[in-house]
Design a protein that fits this description.
The complex is a heterodimer of chains A (326) and B (321).
Chain A lengths: L1 H8 L17 E9 L10 E4 L5 E3 L5 E6 L6 E5 L6 E4 L7 E5 L18 E4 L4 H4 L2 E3 L2 E3 L1 E4 L4 E7 L6 E10 L9 E2 L5 E10 L6 E12 L5 E5 L11 E8 L6 E13 L6 E13 L2 E6 L6 E5 L4 E5 L3 E3 L1 E6 L1
Parallel strand pairs in A: 1-7
Antiparallel strand pairs in A: 1-4, 2-3, 2-5, 5-6, 8-25, 9-10, 11-21, 12-18, 12-22, 13-17, 13-21, 13-25, 14-19, 15-16, 15-18, 19-20, 21-24, 22-23
Chain B lengths: L14 H16 L6 E8 L10 E4 L4 E4 L5 E5 L8 E5 L6 E4 L8 E4 L15 E5 L9 E3 L10 E9 L5 E9 L14 E10 L6 E4 L5 E6 L3 E5 L6 E2 L3 E8 L6 E8 L4 E8 L3 E3 L9 E5 L4 E3 L12 E7 L1
Parallel strand pairs in B: 1-7
Antiparallel strand pairs in B: 1-4, 2-3, 2-5, 5-6, 8-23, 9-20, 10-17, 10-21, 11-15, 11-16, 11-23, 12-13, 12-14, 12-17, 18-19, 21-22
The chains are: A mainly beta (326), B mainly beta (321).
Amino acid sequence: MLNHSYNIFFVTFWFFLASHTISYGQQIIDGQVVDKQTELAIPGATVKLLKAGQATQTNVQGYFELSIDNTLTDTLSFTSIGYKPYKLAVKGTQRQLLIALEPDVTGLNQVDITGKKAKDKILSRFTWDDLKEVAGNGYQHFTRPAYARVGLAKLFETPQPNALLVNIMFGRRSLSSALDAPQSSDGKVARFYIHVCDVDSATQLPGAVLLTKEVVLLDNSLKITLDLSKEKFIIPGTRFFITIEWIRTPLNEIISRAIAERLQRARLNGRTFGQYVSKYWVFYRPILILYATGDAKAIKYINQDDKWTPFVDRGNELALAATIRY
Amino acid sequence: MNWPWPQPFAINMKPGKKILLLILNLIALAALGQDKPNIFHIIDSETSKAVPLVSISILRAGLSITTEKDGVFIIPGNMLSMRDTIVFQAQNYVPVKMPLSMLALSSNIPISKYKFDVAGTALKYKNDTVINVIEKLEVNHYAGVDTETSYFNYLQLAQQFEAPVAGCRLNRIRVYRMAFNDPPGYTSQRAAYRLRFYDVDPVTGGPGCDLTNDVVEITDDERRQDGSALSKYNIIIPQKKFFVAVEWLRNVGNEGYSMLYDPKTKAYKQRDNYRPAIGIAPKTGKKLNVWGLNFKHQWAPYNYFMPFGTDLAITATVEYN
């Protein structure tokens, strides 16, 4: 069962070709703007093409997207109140930029805080570097697609019982990427569920669902933060699961293609002959991110047929984190 | 469209042919029980020449294929014992529907051309406009591939357009489809398909009569966008509304397959698929403009991608004065 799950989970893709047929007449520049120190998204930052005058603002995930024509010599400017402005030449930029703005502390008044403050802690923290794929100059950093037919789960442990769940963070990628380039349709929109579950005392697997949030993604953000602070959700005990549940709906469909050889039988003389044909697999968004940790014991839980199964992946961790307050 | 649905072809035959059929029937009966392949030829009832690329659907089994250019198809087994209905349909021919067991009577299936006049005189047009403009980078969904939740059992998908005025001439069609690069020598992305053009059926609001009897076929195309110049066909759109359909050729040249997980057996199974997969326009709304022709040759609204997939990724350029 472990091997079976493993094979399905890691979606054995086809490193057959390295490019898509899509030839872009237009160039799309997109990415996320984050705080350099905290790595939290900066919503409402202004992203502007200086020569073209075209501008947009980042959304709640710090995500922006600009579609540009013939402006390869232009410069992108990133500004937000409380941060130092940042400029970037458009030429040579890739999709899914990560712009880390440095806080501008000079303009802020000092505030003295007294009294006991609740402590925030990020469980199973991952960084932007973990999510980004990098190639070149002798260094390569891959991520891998994470997907399950029904669900994926990850176990978390808090330092103290009854902590407040502040947010859930996860990394999300496309099935096709610059480095491994499987051939697949693309798309930004994804609809799925995130559940918080307790730990089944008998099986130690995900148990009763304690909280459910429907998530709808409308952009290509690499890192998503789901704000749960308004839920006032207290985690009972110290151990809990966060699970992702896929929805098999046309909206989420991704069609992936491989080339396969198939034996055909001639209609009239019955002789067989080989023919290269397209072999399609249908997946459903979101595709999550597995990143290398070197931790050989990073345990995840997979649900392919309405049954949870633990497995150990060789040094790859699911980019799924939670912020708690206690 | 209200087709003049024909009687099974044997009923209208002359007495001499009926005797021949009876002999064939006896031969077929003698062959009862032998599981051999039965070869059939679909021929033009007037010329007796092969009709190319005929769509054949077996209704209850939910199967459909398209013949090659020789009009030949094969069904193995004892035809007399088969309890299903078979439908033959080709562009410009009257569809034929009959019990599958009747194929035991003859290896030739004659189908008849229907005759219609296409109105329209070649004129010079001053204006043109593109309808259903597509943002190509936003085309991410495709129709034509079987999924675990739904099999693509359609012969045609049609997109409804609305021209600025009545009496326009169709100038160009652009179809956005799913395609990837193949290495040299591979042809697994090539697709051959037909474009069909219909007016609006006043009863159903779906595709009605053909607007041309010319065969417009895209052959062995590997591109993601197929543009077709159409002014030479002089397709005149009588009303403002009209349909452009992609007709799948479900033959070996377009064949591929989907890997579909079967939760009952907990295993993946193969299911044949035929190129092309047609893009869904990135549009949302309540008005659905896509119709599908199913294996029973019935047009019905194609709502698989609703509410976000109201239109196919097909653009039309029309000329008018």
